[in-house]
């Protein structure tokens, strides 16, 4: 009853503007679910970080990130900065020390990783309304870029006569 009144059980998994890549066999919020809150190691909560009028992109390193995964995540951050500017705020969620020029959240206890099923490198795009717009079980930038291109494309115009 409380979930219904507070609309915490509402999800948009069937919406055409959410998506995911990879086979998710573990828990974690699915595309279309409300983003999960978790405590941050230095104090504060993840929801406070994401509470904004912009999209939040969470780049999870996983427990043992390799050099290739960190390079992929750095490429995603660069693509977001260059292509979307302030529209998407990107955060690296790191279990271990990692050289990173952008915004970073240290997660040595793995609480945020656990809440998002981030044992492996993965990506979550959180919409301004607090729902997961996209998730990818990979550090590969391509699935995220394809998703963003799909949802940001203008609708196709009909081939009929011009009404003007």
Helix proportion:
25-40%
- Tertiary shape: globular
The helix/strand order is HEHEHEEHEEH
Rg, Cα atoms, Å:
17 Å
Gap from first CA to last CA:
52 Å
Q: Helix/strand/pairing class, anyone?
A: alpha/beta
Largest sheet: 6 strands, mixed
Walk me through this protein's architecture:
The protein has 164 residues and is an alpha/beta fold. The protein is 27% helix and 18% strand. It has a six-stranded mixed sheet, with helices on one face. It is globular. The termini are far apart. The model is unreliable at 1-6 (pLDDT under 50).
Topology overview:
Elements: H1 2-6, E1 19-21, H2 46-50, E2 55-60, H3 67-84, E3 88-94, E4 103-106, H4 111-115, E5 122-126, E6 132-136, H5 141-152
Parallel strand pairs: 1-6, 2-3, 3-4
Antiparallel strand pairs: 2-5, 5-6
């Amino acid at each position: 009853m409380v979930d219904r009144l507070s609309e915490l059980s509402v999800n948009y998994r069937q919406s055409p503007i959410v998506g995911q890549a990879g086979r998710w066999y573990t828990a974690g919020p699915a595309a279309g679910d409300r983003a999960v809150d978790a405590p941050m190691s230095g104090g504060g909560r993840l929801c406070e970080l994401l509470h904004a009028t912009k999209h939040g992109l969470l780049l999870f390193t996983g427990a043992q990130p390799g050099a290739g995964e960190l390079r992929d995540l750095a490429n995603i951050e660069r693509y977001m900065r260059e292509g979307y500017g302030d529209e998407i705020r990107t955060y690296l969620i790191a279990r271990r020390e990692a050289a990173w020029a952008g915004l970073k959240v240290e997660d040595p206890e793995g609480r945020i990783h656990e809440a998002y099923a981030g044992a492996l490198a993965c990506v979550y795009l959180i919409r301004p309304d607090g729902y997961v717009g996209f998730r990818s079980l990979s550090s590969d930038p391509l699935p995220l870029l394809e998703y963003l291109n799909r949802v940001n494309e203008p609708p196709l115009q009909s081939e009929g006569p011009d009404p003007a």
